[in-house]
Write a structure and sequence with these properties.
The chain is an alpha/beta fold and 149 residues long. It has one domain. 28% of the residues lie in helices and 22% in strands. It is built from five helices and eight strands; from the N terminus they run E-H-E-H-E-H-E-H-E-E-E-H-E. A four-stranded parallel sheet has the order 2-1-5-8, covered by helices on one side. The longest helix has 17 residues, at 80-96. The two termini are 25 Å apart. Bound molecules: iron/sulfur cluster. Residues 7-9, 15-16, 40-42, 105, 108, 110-111 line the site of iron/sulfur cluster (SF4).
């Protein structure tokens, strides 16, 4: 069976903005029997852990890739460049690992698939994908959100 890129936080790596991870039995079931390439695009892009929460502003990950939206922290700091760099590194890791699909952390501005926070830091979700999810999909890697998180 082909390899799968998986958000590192789903594999127990404490790389989330709050310094925690999101490992769960549901994720373990979802990757059972698969070769897994764990990867955190935000850390790979140069951000520290813990870090301020960030959200997409002006569009979703596809818009960030196209230069019409940004990623900002709740302090107002622009981290678009770090998110783009992390997404490119995630794509390279997926290709190097022979991954044809990815199982990613829901709602994240990097890894989210189908829904992301709306940029207001109020917990509201809007349809859309994170920056890494968008780049992977544009390059033929199927992304699905992890169950149970
Ligand atoms: Fe997890 Fe993705 Fe956020 Fe890294 S960028 S902590 S892998 S959701």
């Amino acid at each position: 069976m082909e390899a799968m890129l998986v958000s590192a936080c789903l594999r127990g790596v404490p790389c989330r903005f709050d310094g925690k991870h999101k490992a769960s039995p549901e994720v373990e079931d979802a990757v059972a029997g698969r070769a897994v390439v764990p990867f955190c695009p935000e850390v790979a892009g140069g951000l520290v852990t813990p870090r301020r929460p960030a959200e997409l502003v002006g569009g979703d990950g596809y818009d960030v890739l196209d230069g019409t939206a940004r990623v900002v922290e709740d302090t107002g700091r622009d981290v678009t460049a770090e998110f783009l760099d992390g997404a490119r590194r995630a794509l390279a890791a997926a290709r190097n690992g022979g991954c044809t699909e990815a199982l990613l952390m829901p709602r994240s501005p990097s890894c989210g698939r189908g829904a992301v926070y709306d940029g207001s830091f109020t917990g509201r979700l809007v349809p859309g994908d994170g920056v890494t999810a968008a780049l992977l999909q544009r390059n033929g890697i199927a992304v699905r959100p992890a169950p149970g998180v």
